[in-house]
């Protein structure tokens, strides 16, 4: 029999449960309670519940599930549907879910109740504390008023979520928040449409015979792939990575379980140079982008990154790695997991060797394990984000 006090932990989602349970487990006998009837659509609810059950199984705590009474929740927030995020609707929603938690804690004889909601930087701890203390007086169960985002709680939840390969949602959960998210996405897609027209008409590098910018994608793509420059095949097709090197790249993705069409539909695909640099000195191979071309195209790449808003950035080849990460970057980063703030946005970066040089690169001592490790890391990130 545990001598620790019993605590009922309201869980809003699996990622937030990770660091909160980690912080509580040594002090309390924790039971989880997944109660989020506001989540829409139904398959989103099912996915978040399944991920929470997965976390409970891995971390080793009991989990109870409340009824998904969506009609009752909608009645509670009636008249507040147009409130902005962090507005009055959110306060009512916090209280709605916490009251059910407090009631259950009282019925089952728990000593404490609390919620994972405070680990999110988007949730007001002051609101949660006031609601919890009021419900504590009403139901006679102590409310643990800890702000779990403190002491890097949110950062830790990201780390553990990555380790456990957890799904991370991109909206709070209710229909109004989903609709607001859809409205923002539509506006961002429209902004990207105007940007892509501007990029397509770029004639800045007048020394190139056929300046035809080659890129593919849209706004809000979880994956962004950056190569060196279009080759002759890309110039003809106007489709990135459509030549022999591209075919090998898509084989790598297929080996990880992701077909080219699926990757393309979820990715923004571009290159350091947008236009064909021409033939190299030997008259046979495609030339790398010139210094002028790189300088002219870098602002475009930054804008592409802004519109794509990727969570994973794949840099294919030394030219791409150095253009984005600096001259000291390159093939030494193959096989390394890199996360940094780039152009104002935090992103996970995977560096791959250029497929055209693959016959040479892995034959150098120590390179093959790096390449295999890079593909393993890429597969993990794809499973988490696509």
TrEMBL record:
One of its GO terms (molecular function) is metal ion binding. Residues 214-376 form the Uracil-DNA glycosylase-like domain. It comes from the Bacteria. [4Fe-4S] cluster binds at residues 12-13, 90, 93. The keyword Cytoplasm does not apply. Keywords: 4Fe-4S, Disulfide bond, Iron, Iron-sulfur, Metal-binding, Oxidoreductase, Queuosine biosynthesis, Redox-active center, tRNA processing. The keyword Iron-sulfur applies. Pfam families: QueH (PF02677), UDG (PF03167). Disulfide bonds join 172-174. It catalyses: epoxyqueuosine(34) in tRNA + AH2 = queuosine(34) in tRNA + A + H2O. GO terms for biological process: tRNA queuosine(34) biosynthetic process. It is an enzyme of class 1 (oxidoreductase). Its EC number is 1.17.99.6. SMART domains: UDG, UreE_C. Pathway: tRNA modification; tRNA-queuosine biosynthesis. Catalyzes the conversion of epoxyqueuosine (oQ) to queuosine (Q), which is a hypermodified base found in the wobble positions of tRNA(Asp), tRNA(Asn), tRNA(His) and tRNA(Tyr). Belongs to the QueH family. This is Epoxyqueuosine reductase QueH. It comes from candidate division WOR-3 bacterium.
């Amino acid at each position: 029999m545990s001598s620790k006090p019993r605590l009922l932990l309201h869980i809003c989602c699996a990622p937030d449960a990770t660091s909160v349970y980690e912080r509580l487990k040594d002090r309390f006998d924790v039971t989880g309670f997944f109660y989020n009837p506001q989540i829409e659509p139904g398959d989103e609810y099912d996915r978040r519940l399944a991920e929470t059950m997965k976390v409970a199984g891995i971390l080793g705590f009991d989990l109870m599930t409340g009824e998904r009474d969506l009609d009752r929740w909608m009645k509670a927030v009636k008249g507040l549907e147009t409130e902005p995020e962090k507005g009055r609707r959110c306060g009512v929603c916090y209280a709605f879910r916490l009251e059910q938690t407090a009631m259950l804690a009282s019925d089952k004889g728990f000593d404490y109740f609390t919620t994972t909601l405070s680990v999110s930087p988007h949730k007001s701890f002051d609101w949660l504390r006031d609601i919890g203390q009021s419900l504590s007086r009403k139901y006679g169960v102590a409310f643990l008023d800890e702000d779990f985002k403190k002491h890097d709680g949110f950062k830790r939840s990201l780390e553990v979520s990555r380790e456990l390969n957890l799904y991370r949602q991109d909206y709070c959960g209710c229909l109004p928040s989903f609709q607001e998210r859809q409205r923002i996405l539509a506006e961002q897609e429209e902004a990207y449409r105007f940007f892509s027209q501007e990029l397509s008409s770029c004639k800045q590098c007048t020394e190139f015979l056929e300046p035809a910018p080659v890129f593919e994608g849209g706004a809000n793509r979880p994956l962004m792939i950056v190569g060196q420059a279009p080759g002759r095949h890309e110039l003809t097709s106007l489709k990135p990575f459509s030549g022999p090197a591209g075919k090998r790249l898509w084989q790598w993705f297929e080996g990880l379980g992701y077909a080219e069409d699926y990757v393309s539909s979820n990715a923004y695909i571009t290159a350091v140079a947008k236009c064909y640099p021409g033939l190299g000195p030997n008259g046979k191979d495609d030339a790398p982008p010139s210094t002028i071309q790189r300088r002219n195209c870098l602002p475009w790449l930054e804008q592409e990154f802004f519109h794509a808003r990727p969570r994973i950035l794949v840099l294919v080849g030394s030219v791409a790695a150095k253009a984005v990460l600096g001259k000291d970057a390159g093939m030494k980063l193959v096989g390394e997991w890199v996360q940094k703030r780039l152009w104002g946005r935090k992103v996970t970066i995977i560096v791959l060797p250029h497929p055209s040089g693959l016959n040479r690169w892995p034959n150098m001592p120590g390179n093959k394990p790096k390449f295999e490790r890079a593909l393993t890391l890429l597969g993990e990130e794809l499973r988490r984000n696509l």
